[in-house]
TrEMBL record, chain A:
One of its GO terms (molecular function) is heme binding. The keyword Metal-binding applies. It comes from Marinobacter salinexigens. Pfam families: Cytochrome_CBB3, SoxA-TsdA_cyt-c. This is C-type cytochrome. InterPro entries: Cyt_c-like_dom (IPR009056), Cyt_c-like_dom_sf (IPR036909), Cytochrome_c-type_DH (IPR051459). It comes from the Bacteria. Keywords: Heme, Iron, Metal-binding, Signal. Residues 72-157, 182-267 form the Cytochrome c domain. Residues 302-326 are annotated as: Disordered. Residues 1-21 form the signal peptide.
From TrEMBL, chain B:
It holds the Pfam family Cytochrom_C. Heme c 2 binds at residues 146, 149-150, 192. Coiled coil: none annotated. The lineage of its organism: Bacteria, Pseudomonadati, Pseudomonadota, Gammaproteobacteria, Pseudomonadales. This is Cytochrome c4. Its main location: periplasm. Keywords: Electron transport, Heme, Iron, Metal-binding, Periplasm, Signal, Transport. GO terms for molecular function: electron transfer activity; heme binding; iron ion binding. Residues 1-24 form the signal peptide. It is found in: Periplasm. The keyword Phosphoprotein does not apply. One of its GO terms (cellular component) is periplasmic space. Binds 2 heme c groups covalently per subunit.
Length: 326, 222
């Protein structure tokens, strides 16, 4: 390479540098907040450290809850029986809008939940995540571990109005519940193109040095058939606003729906509410399962028609109990 | 035709038919020769990347020893296709065949990681900022932590997410800037472009310094 060529190259570099300042190559496209919505700024760990009005003992408990949230795999085989951490779905430490921020659970509960048809406490809501999304069993109600989780949630809600329900950025949702026409092969194509590099060709995820890096999206070590993420609209909204990582809003709405349907057309551990008959279970919990492919036939196979509970040696955790005030 | 000869012929034919179908395998011995002696055009790799593959911190030449072979081979191909731009690297790798690229990659992947001698000159607060970015990210600015993709201890995952632990900070900084200004765009699905372009120059310095201090090996089990 001679002097001229080098000069030409560097000139080229300067030009590309100048072009840079315009638009980002990968914009962050998140939904707008609606007028009148409450938009929360959850505190950060730094805020916690700097806040002298919080008792040091409480700080310790909040940080323990945070540690449980970020590294839930430390309880593998105790509370968690798959490869998930809380932060796998609740990205950004559970603080981020449109990434299933967890603080609203602390300001909107106790409340009636359609999923289990009774009034739930914050502890019961957390127990739901452990029972379904983590394919496990929750820390005991009232235990130190449960208190730590609750403390983390409540501290994140600092400053938020209690029982305010019109919350911007809540959940993952903005795609709505009306499914477009879904096609397995279309979803597979979106998956192969955008997801397989991290989550693997068979949704198995990736591990390194014995640790989970990219969580499995189906199979024995993924969320079970009772997890909110099995609802196609929930997964579609999560994907739209959070995936691929670092590229929120990069897929079209239709691509998000198709790939969510593809992922949720694969087998996974049994719904802990299983009655022994998949069709009966689907009917019994149809208010939930009308949004999933559980108990339906996909590619000639009846999904969820098995006794497989993954690596969890039981079906239903004791914590899942009905409650009435009659 | 003897029986032995016909057997050989059969083996030869089988090899002929099978080889092009399977993914090219690198030969570390052939790679060693290219690395140390070159191919007659351009400088041999070792001239800049060091006889032990340790690179050069001052010059910003990366350590290659112990990196993933698939990742390394892809970089050589990407220099040649222009998806990764380097006025220094491109003329030095432009006449390597696909097989030679695989051989060089296999050789470097097989080398032990040389012990690092340079202590970090970064300040404590800079390293703390880098650690936070690497392990927790800066989610308020849509920046996930490096370890989400580069794995525990940022020691790398597969052939798409290279090890960053113990890499020279000068090189990491230079590459983050290359992602930012479009000289480097060989990331699958723009996954790195997205993150790199959101980093401030202060964050680039901090995370490069921190990653350089990390061990390339997992901590021994207690």
């Amino acid at each position: 390479m001679n002097y001229k060529e080098i000069t030409a190259l560097f000139t080229g570099l300067l030009i590309s540098n100048a072009a840079l300042s315009a638009e980002p190559a990968v914009p962050v496209n998140l939904p707008e907040f609606k007028e009148g919505q409450y938009v929360h700024q959850a505190p950060s760990v730094q805020d916690l450290e700097n806040n002298d009005s919080i008792h040091p003992e409480l700080k310790k408990v909040i940080l323990k809850g945070r540690d449980m949230f970020m590294n839930t795999q430390q309880f593998r085989g105790e509370y968690v029986f798959n490869d998930m951490n809380c932060k796998s779905c609740h990205m950004g430490e559970g603080r981020r809008n449109w990434s299933g921020p967890v603080w609203p659970a602390a300001t909107t509960l106790p409340d009636f939940r359609g999923k289990n048809q009774h009034v739930n406490s914050l502890e019961e809501r957390i127990a739901g995540c452990f029972s379904f999304s983590m394919n496990g069993t929750p820390p005991a109600y009232g235990s130190d571990d449960m208190l730590a989780m609750v403390a983390y949630h409540r501290w994140l809600a600092t400053g938020a109005p209690v029982y305010e329900k019109n919350i911007g950025g809540r959940g993952f949702s903005h795609l709505g519940r009306e499914k477009p026409a879904l096609d397995y092969d279309k979803g597979k194509a979106v998956y192969t193109e955008n997801c397989a590099i991290c989550h693997g060709d068979s949704g198995q995820g990736q591990h390194k040095d014995g640790e989970v890096v990219f969580p499995p999206l189906w199979g024995d070590n993924s969320y079970n058939w009772g997890a909110g993420m099995t609802r196609v609209f929930t997964a579609a909204s999560f994907i739209k606003n959070n995936m691929p990582l670092g590229k929120p809003g990069s897929l079209t709405d239709d691509e998000a729906w198709q790939v969510a349907n593809y992922i949720n057309s694969q087998e996974r551990p049994q719904d802990p509410r299983y009655t022994g008959d998949v069709k009966e279970t689907r009917e019994k919990y149809l208010n939930f399962h009308k949004h999933t492919n559980y108990g339906t036939v996909v590619n000639g196979k009846l999904l969820g028609d098995h006794d497989n509970t993954g690596s969890k040696p039981f079906l239903k955790p004791d914590a899942l109990k009905p409650r009435t005030f009659d | 035709m003897t029986r032995q000869f016909s057997r050989l012929l059969l083996a030869g034919c089988t090899a002929l038919f099978i080889t092009p179908l399977s993914h090219a395998q690198g030969d570390p011995d052939a790679g060693a020769q290219l690395v140390n002696q070159g191919d007659g055009s351009g400088a041999p790799c070792m001239a800049c990347h060091g006889p032990d593959g340790g690179g050069n911190a001052v010059a910003g030449f990366p350590r290659l020893a112990g990196l993933d072979a698939g990742y390394l081979a892809k970089q050589i191909q990407d220099y040649n296709s222009g998806r990764r731009v380097s006025p220094v690297m491109q003329p030095n790798v432009d006449n390597f065949s696909e097989q030679q690229a695989q051989d060089i990659a296999a050789y470097y992947a097989s080398l032990p990681v040389p012990a690092s001698t340079a202590a970090s000159s970064a300040s404590e607060s800079q390293l703390a900022m880098g650690k936070k970015l690497a392990e927790e990210g800066d989610w308020d600015n849509s920046i996930p932590p490096c370890s989400t993709c580069h794995g525990p201890g940022n020691r790398g995952v597969g052939d798409a997410f290279p090890a960053l632990a113990g890499q020279h900070p000068s090189y990491i900084k230079q590459q983050l800037e290359a992602w930012q200004n479009g000289q480097r765009k060989n990331d699958p699905n723009q996954l790195m472009t997205a993150v790199a372009e959101r980093l401030s120059s202060e964050q680039v310095e901090a995370v490069a310094a921190y990653l350089g201090t990390l061990s390339t090996q997992p901590a021994k089990a207690q």
